[in-house]
Amino acid sequence: MTAEYRIAEDRLGGEPTLIVSAPDDSTRVVLARRGATLLSWQARLGSAGRLKELTDGYRDEKELLSQDGVRAGLMVPFTNRIADGRYRYDGHDHDLLPGRYGDRLIYHGFAREAPFELVRATTTADSARLLLHTTSIRPGRHPGYPFALDLEAEYTIGERGLSIEIRATNVGDTTAPYAAGWHPYFTLSRPIDDLVLQIPARTVIRTDPSLIPLPGEDALLPLDDCPGMDFRAPKRVGDAVIDACYADLTPGPDGRIETVLTNPATGEELRVWQYGGFMHVFTGDTLARDQRTSIALEPVETMTDAFNRPEHAAALTLEPGKRREFSLGVAYGASGT
């Protein structure tokens, strides 16, 4: 009988986790049920050698509960920041931080802390597929978001890659604003300075000091006018400090957009892919631990503060009874393969 991928239950402190292993132990993935969060992804090139950790996820229960850095968090129902924690939708004003004054920073949605249940798991000799589901987003549970969503995160884990389909169904009676994204940190060497990055983007989003995009067309800066932020041709990260959203992404012939991170010293390569949307890049300069030892490459459906931008209204709209999905993933291999 051909051996198949294995799925085992475990815990990170008091938090339930799932461990996925390849039949030959060439791949090992750990997922927390809280937030359907990727805690660890290890793989190896070739048939020999040790497993290599490719992500910089939460290391213990305390970190997972603190959510510092939003390590590999699923960003739902909004991505990155909402200015002042307030927005207007369908003629109504909403406050995500009622009663809070001064620091009104809110970011990356609610799903990253939601309890997910494993509803289906299938394994073959080549892959494992896990479907996780939550009904935690309901009116009254999250201030300023009086909408009802059922969420699914379906992970497919293979020999040297993983993919995620993030799906949301509006189970309420009113149209809901909704967008999804993923906030993983990747590491091929420490620090990240000598890694080479390629982003197929023609535009970078300009922001104010609070990282909120400038109004209207002022937010769109052609990369031809900003060579320091231009990674269309592969370029060493160096000492660049980046916390920015890249737009006007160029897809390949199959419609897939790929952002590529390469370690020229070893020939290793990570290809972060997505269908549509934007790519947010963060070089980890303000993390509480291990600054600049990993880089966040974040596929997102919309730019920061999309809930307050009229040009994103159509992309955000999720009608009652409708479902939307966002497909993304990452592949590990040798450079050029």
Task: From the structure above, extract its key features.
6-stranded antiparallel β-sheet, globular, mainly beta, 9-stranded antiparallel β-sheet, about 325 residues, 2 helices
Protein described:
- The protein contains two helices and 26 strands.
- It has helices at 61-66, 313-316; strands spanning 6-12, 15-21, 27-32, 37-43, 52-53, 73-75, 86-89, 92-95, 117-123, 128-137, 149-158, 161-170, 176-177, 181-183, 185-186, 196-198, 201-205, 220-222, 235-236, 243-249, 257-263, 268-274, 278-282, 295-300, 317-318, 323-334.
- The strands form six sheets. Strands 9-10-11-12-26-22-21-16-19 form a nine-stranded antiparallel beta sheet, with no helix packed on it. Strands 15-24-23-20-17-18 form a six-stranded antiparallel beta sheet, with no helix packed on it.
- The longest helix has 6 residues, at 61-66.
- The chain is globular, with a radius of gyration of 19 Å.
- The protein starts with 5 loop residues before the first strand and ends with a strand.
Task: Note the topology.
Layout: E1 6-12, E2 15-21, E3 27-32, E4 37-43, E5 52-53, H1 61-66, E6 73-75, E7 86-89, E8 92-95, E9 117-123, E10 128-137, E11 149-158, E12 161-170, E13 176-177, E14 181-183, E15 185-186, E16 196-198, E17 201-205, E18 220-222, E19 235-236, E20 243-249, E21 257-263, E22 268-274, E23 278-282, E24 295-300, H2 313-316, E25 317-318, E26 323-334
Assembly form of the protein: single chain
Order of helices and strands: EEEEEHEEEEEEEEEEEEEEEEEEEHEE
Q: In percent, how much strand structure appears in the residues?
A: 35-45%
* Separation of the first and last Cα atoms: 31 Å
**What is the tally of helical segments?**
2
- Can you give the helix content as a percent range? under 10%
